[in-house]
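Tutorial, part two.
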Amino acid sequence: MEPSVKYAASAGVATKVTVLDALRAGETEKATTLLEGLLDGDILTLSMLESAKQDETVKRVVSRAAEYRYKNPYRSGNAEVDRMVQRTLSQRSTPTNQPSQ
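Running the prediction step on this input gives:
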């Protein structure tokens, strides 16, 4: 197994356990913040992968993320991350509920 896959899966397990623990403890704000941060990370990863830029499945997923973020605004506290995420979402999708400009 590729070391990067092993470490990515290990990190995924650790993060999911943390989110599940928070949810079971009734700490929904903590769980939401963790999931929003993971979403930001995945959006940024997709933005850097050339192979993802023309993939129709990726475009649909990013569009869904853009619609979600339009309905549920989130700021990470890192202005650069927020700017990059917003740029990716606006370049790759057109949320159906976004007001026309």
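The CA atoms of residues 46 and 52 lie 6 Å apart. In part three we will examine how such features are distributed along the chain.
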